[in-house]
Design a protein that fits this description.
It is built from 13 helices and eleven strands. The chain is α+β, with helices and mostly antiparallel strands. It is 60% helix and 14% strand. The structure holds adenosine-5'-triphosphate (ATP) and magnesium ion (MG).
């Protein structure tokens, strides 16, 4: 027995050591982080508040952010540069055609309406050429704010032709207009915008966005499958903490998650085995002692009646009672399954029991009464508290309250209460304060120890305090 207790003690020591180390690390981290104030800490604060809390959302963000940044940079650097380069090449080519036409016009005599030149321009170059009767260029039109085409075409005309000119590249129309002042006339040329300007990049961008969306959808689906085992592991650990089973839990997912799950399962088995070993061992010891005690009683009975023996008999009876209680506890708590239980009805039953003992009792419950607990164990926990109150007081009040996280049951009485320094001690097994108060009615001193054990195995605890009724208030709190 001592080796099991030693083992549990060591586990507990290791856990508290781990907690203290973690606390120290956290304090150190805080003290290192503390001197950093100003914009950096404000940024971190903002990051902390602004970042999503869930792993799923965070992982998605980690995937999406680089993708968006990368694509934006690629789109800007590659597409825009390419486009402006192509625009320069095309403008240069169009200007070469214009220069050729002007050279032909100047070098070879033309008919009155320059029909030959216009035909060649139209058929061979796809340019619509007119020769206007006026000899002046119109005043320069408004320049577009930022147009590569306008800049590139103007540059090229200035470079290659070197005559006064006027261009109109504004508007969404597919035709550009260029006028060049010649000696006796103004040549007007209509150029198709597509001949002078680089391709439009919106199709490229559309493709990029669509592909990104497809890739993202696939990433989201895969990611969800990766996160699910972690969520399951968290659920299983939570259920175990509340003393419930997670029957379908199996290690799944990525290697690291699988390892964590396997480690959790192993730890769970070890803890369960340690608890079971302790309980069966104590049950065994109690059982053996009971056999000896029974023999003892028999021998005492054979010795007949005498005042000296009465005291011994009373002690033996008390010892038998203690063992009986312990055996009941050790037997009763093994293997009970959690189930949704109507706590309000349970409290009503406890009230009826109290009234049967001739005490006045009241009960109240707030919230949804159905809670998943181990019903018999949880009832024994509450019954122990209520029976204590019944023993010491004339009025008992039981209140249940359930919210989204906790089920809280309070048992108030108007008895003598327990002085604050002793409130932790009374949870120790076999400890009774009764001796001074009422020697005959004393129990075994196991009630509160058992109640706390049950509350803790549900992931909760019991606290003692002052009751508004004047006596003791016992509060049980378990997670729902
Ligand atoms: N409501 C209460 N008012 C005053 N004292 C109490 C109250 N509840 C418990 N105590 C004190 O705490 C001690 C321990 O209580 P506990 O329930 O563990 O043992 P017990 O009631 O003596 O025995 P058992 O419950 O096993 O029959 C009791 O002996 C009693 O002195
Ligand atoms: Mg008791």
């Amino acid at each position: 027995m001592s080796s099991v207790d030693d083992g549990i003690g060591r586990l507990r020591n290791a856990a508290s050591h781990f907690l203290s180390v973690a606390n120290a690390a956290a304090t150190a981290a805080r003290s290192v982080a503390a001197p950093v104030t100003g914009p950096w800490s404000r940024f971190r604060q903002w990051l902390k508040l602004g970042l999503p809390k869930g792993l799923y959302a965070r992982a998605l963000l980690i995937i999406i952010m680089p993708m968006v940044v990368l694509q934006s940079v690629v789109a800007f650097m590659f597409v825009e540069r390419q486009r402006s380069l192509v625009t320069y090449y095309l403008s240069s080519a169009v200007t070469q055609e214009l220069a050729t036409l002007i050279d032909v016009y100047k070098s070879y005599p033309q008919g009155a309406d320059r029909a030959q030149l216009r035909r060649i321009a139209q058929e061979r170059l796809g340019l619509t050429v007119d020769f206007l009767p006026e000899t002046q260029l119109p005043p320069p039109g408004p320049k577009p704010f930022f147009s590569q085409l306008d800049v590139a075409l103007s540059d090229e005309i200035r470079k290659q032709i070197g005559l006064p000119f006027w261009i109109d590249t504004i508007g969404r129309s597919s035709i550009l207009e260029v006028r060049v002042k010649l000696d006796d006339t103004v040549m007007r040329v209509f150029v198709r915008r597509a001949d002078a300007q680089g391709f439009n990049s919106w199709i490229f961008l559309l493709w990029m966005v669509v592909t990104s969306l497809v890739v993202l959808t696939i990433a989201i689906l895969f990611l969800r499958n990766q996160i699910r085992p972690i969520v399951r592991l968290a659920d299983a650990a939570e259920a175990f903490g509340k003393g419930r089973e997670a029957p379908n839990f199996r290690p799944r997912g990525a290697r690291e998650v699988r390892r964590a799950a396997a480690a959790f399962l192993e730890m769970k088995t070890r803890i369960e085995r340690a608890i079971e070993q302790r309980t069966t061992m104590l049950a065994g010891v109690s059982h053996d002692l009971r056999t000896v005690l029974t023999r003892f009683k028999l021998e005492l009975a054979l010795l007949g009646d005498s005042p000296e023996l009465d005291a011994i008999k009373k002690d033996v009876d008390e010892m038998a009672g203690m063992l009986e209680a312990y055996l009941a506890f050790a037997r009763g708590d093994l293997g009970e399954q959690s189930a949704p239980t109507d706590i309000a009805a349970m409290l009503e039953e406890l009230k009826a029991d109290t009234e049967r003992h001739g005490r006045s009792a009241s009960v109240a419950f707030h919230g949804q009464p159905e809670v998943t607990v181990r019903p018999a164990a949880f009832k024994r926990c509450l019954a122990n508290l209520v029976s204590n109150a019944t023993r010491f007081a004339s009025t008992v009040s039981i209140t249940g309250h359930r919210d989204h996280r906790w089920l809280t049951v309070t048992v108030d009485d108007n008895g003598p209460g327990i002085p604050p320094p002793l409130r932790e001690d009374v949870f120790k097994p076999f400890l009774r304060l009764d001796d001074a108060r009422n020697q005959d009615e004393g129990g075994t001193g196991l009630g509160l120890a058992i109640a706390r054990d049950i509350a803790r195995s549900h992931g909760g605890d019991i606290a003692l305090g002052d009751s508004p009724l004047g006596g003791l208030r016992a509060t049980v709190r378990v997670p729902v």
